[in-house]
Amino acid sequence: MVQLRPRASRAPASAEAMVDEGQLASEEEEAEHGLLLGQPSSGAAAEPLEEDEEGDDELDDEAPEELTFASAQAEAREEEWRVRETVRRDKTLLKEKRKRREELFIEQKKRKLLPDTILEKLTTASQTNIKKSPGKVKEVNLQKKNEDCEKGNDSKKVKVQKVQSVSQNKSYLAVRLKDQDLRDSRQQAAQAFIHNSLYGPGTNRTTVNKFLSLANKRLPVKRAAVQFLNNAWGIQKKQNAKRFKRRWMVRKMKTKK
Amino acid sequence: RSTSGAEPESARARGAGAERGEHREGERGAAGIRCVAYNNQSNRLAVSRTDGTVEIYNLSANYFQEKFFPGHESRATEALCWAEGQRLFSAGLNGEIMEYDLQALNIKYAMDAFGGPIWSMAASPSGSQLLVGCEDGSVKLFQITPDKIQFERNFDRQKSRILSLSWHPSGTHIAAGSIDYISVFDVKSGSAVHKMIVDRQYMGVSKRKCIVWGVAFLSDGTIISVDSAGKVQFWDSATGTLVKSHLIANADVQSIAVADQEDSFVVGTAEGTVFHFQLVPVTSNSSEKQWVRTKPFQHHTHDVRTVAHSPTALISGGTDTHLVFRPLMEKVQVKNYDAALRKITFPHRCLISCSKKRQLLLFQFAHHLELWRLGSTVATGKNGDTLPLSKNADHLLHLKTKGPENIICSCISPCGSWIAYSTVSRFFLYRLNYEHDNISLKRVSKMPAFLRSALQILFSEDSTKLFVASNQGALHIVQLSGGSFKHLHAFQPQSGTVEAMCLLAVSPDGNWLAASGTSAGVHVYNVKQLKLHCTVPAYNFPVTAMAIAPNTNNLVIAHSDQQVFEYSIPDKQYTDWSRTVQKQGFHHLWLQRDTPITHISFHPKRPMHILLHDAYMFCIIDKSLPLPNDKTLLYNPFPPTNESDVVRRRTAHAFKISKIYKPLLFMDLLDERTLVAVERPLDDIIAQLPPPIKKKKFGT
């Protein structure tokens, strides 16, 4: 950080210097302890310490300095030039930083997209009519809205891209995720409808067990149902009983000893 | 329990689905039938199941399943139809219309109709247009072009989903059944001409919506509708009014099919009953006719979701996985065994393979494979006893397939160290290691792409070679060694069209490989020299089972019309025994069996014996004994012991048939004294099905 000499005279002080002067009190103490974080600040703390003392002495004893107009002007110009320089330097630094950042982003974006060869293949392959013969299919999330619009003109209905053999080993199926979700939910709704209408409430259905046992009921010597025991009854109770029995056995063994 | 039979001791291994009582639809065993479509020109029936499989049955070849397209988890077909030129289309809840290529045995393309799930599909009477009814209430018209289908236009959109469609025979109007109403559309304008409201309940009020499951449009303008209230209703399409209403069931009536002559139709109900309606004159000499319900048939236990009407028979299929053909007596010309009821329950190909050395059985299901080790017994007894097992059958492996596709075929090597299976897109090969009752599995990666969509897989007897028949017609030989494989050779398809039921058979000495699968006949290849050796002359019925005998290298072939041929491979001609059998002909009861022979095997020490089985019997053919003629009793389990030896010798004949194990899925000779038979009791199949309609029986 550029530091201006804080003079007792009316020299234009930069914003940073103002801030520093404000923080001088705290920084003096920190400098004594040697715990300052940044180098420039410590420098700032060091300088004004000496200057202030000198300035104070001068003010108390002697008359103010006599400055010629030219020197003052020169000094002022110098100050201005210095300020402009700083600003310019800052601007260029920022510009460079921004440039570097832009390049980095472009690099990353390029890395994210598929290599050009594959994109070429996709565009050429989508022109031909490819059979939907499933190879090792993977659904790749591609934003292919542009191509969708293109293909929309070819055949009225083919919006979903079904492309095959991008590379030798694997084949890809590019689908728009939005369409897939809609399709799945509709298919599920349709299956729910069928299930409800055939097996839902209001239908007169019986269980397979009862169906197979119907014959047993009408025999001259009645027999039990095909699945007579319900093994799923009272599972929790049975588990509790087993656990209790185990603990009781352990207790019994202990008291015996 | 194991039984000891007449000559060999046998151990009965129950089918894997037998012990579990859980209900998982389609998970174990066959899936229910969802749609059937009959093609009059070729006399073929296309059947689609709830797991997405589509099977084609050739009704002229003794109702044999000649082609199939494996299913897919996401494909739930709701409609199936034939269009002109033998083209098969299906549409389902995934919203896509699929065309099947019957020559190349794959799916040509799947076109999204963009209307949501598709509930119904109908081809126009001319066969050039296709109509689909969608979830969003739209009816879409597609034009069938020579290589694809093209969207033409939408009809007026209705409020609720279109569940059934029917064309008027002239192609000018369409009836569409929806929920609580039926609409009649004019094809040219696409607008709805009439909207007929269906009562929710016959003569009553009900809260449940009335779903019109099926409609049929007759040429005189009558629309027949069947709905979920159990009614069959006749409407007049010119005025849009109800003419007649029949209440035929307490549950839904789910399907309807009209004959081509429009004088009879058939409906199927959710209770499993199939009703036949006929147009009969009001009085014997009047010209006025009316529709009368004539015959009920109860061949199903669960919902009959689809029916079809061929010129001579009623075809029905439903959730209980049976496919029933009921020929109509008045339509059948010749009253022979052809007029009997045919029920297809069990698959027409073998889904179980066996490793004899390690006594393992590999069961193939739709999405997984199960490996079982057979139990054993140390007890002994006499013939016909059931012995207790000392060691139970062991479930060693449950191998789930990756992906949504069904497994097409699978095989385990005779030594038990390799398992291979194929789906439409991939081929899987696994290496098994056994250490002290533990089994570990390692997958062989990077299988070549040309092996996928295999129709049949077979290992050689010494487990060093793998033979794969692909659906392009090529036959691949892969050498297996250690944990890796090497592609040796590919036999390219010979002349003739490829058929789906491609069967392979390899000789125990590893020299010969027989492959059926083209219409040109069975080809026999020399494996050591990698060239075609000879071709068995073509027969007009498809091959159902094939095997090569040890030592003599005789190829035994069974066809779907129950003919069995024996062909000597080294001599390149039929054997003398085969010629004798052909000259005399088989016993008429043998030819009238209605399930095909699915497996043939041999006894290592008895070259005169051939063991074969179908779903309801297994038979040991003893070539040294005389052949039965039509007058002798074919099925004579135990010759009477009190008769004299002379009589016994006279009645003994070559075909020793046993029906003690049925229904039989698989039977093979494990070693000289052991036979393994896998049964699949019908009750077990029913236990896996969805719940049926409650039927009130008196006294329960």
From TrEMBL, chain A:
InterPro entries: NOL7_C. Residues 75-85 have a biased composition (Basic and acidic residues). One of its GO terms (cellular component) is nucleolus. Residues 1-85 are annotated as: Disordered. Residues 1-25, 34-47 have a biased composition (Low complexity). Residues 172-234 form the U3 small nucleolar RNA-associated protein NOL7 C-terminal domain. Residues 48-65 have a biased composition (Acidic residues). Pfam families: NUC129. This is U3 small nucleolar RNA-associated protein NOL7 C-terminal domain-containing protein. The lineage of its organism: Eukaryota, Metazoa, Chordata, Craniata, Vertebrata.
Automatic annotation (TrEMBL), chain B:
Residues 1-27 are annotated as: Disordered. It comes from the Eukaryota. Keywords: Chromosome, Isopeptide bond, Nucleus, Phosphoprotein, Repeat, Ribosome biogenesis, rRNA processing, Transcription, Transcription regulation, Ubl conjugation, WD repeat. Signal peptide: none annotated. It is found in: Chromosome; Nucleus, Nucleolus. One of its GO terms (cellular component) is fibrillar center. One of its GO terms (biological process) is maturation of SSU-rRNA from tricistronic rRNA transcript (SSU-rRNA, 5.8S rRNA, LSU-rRNA). This is U3 small nucleolar RNA-associated protein 4 homolog. It comes from Pan troglodytes (Chimpanzee).
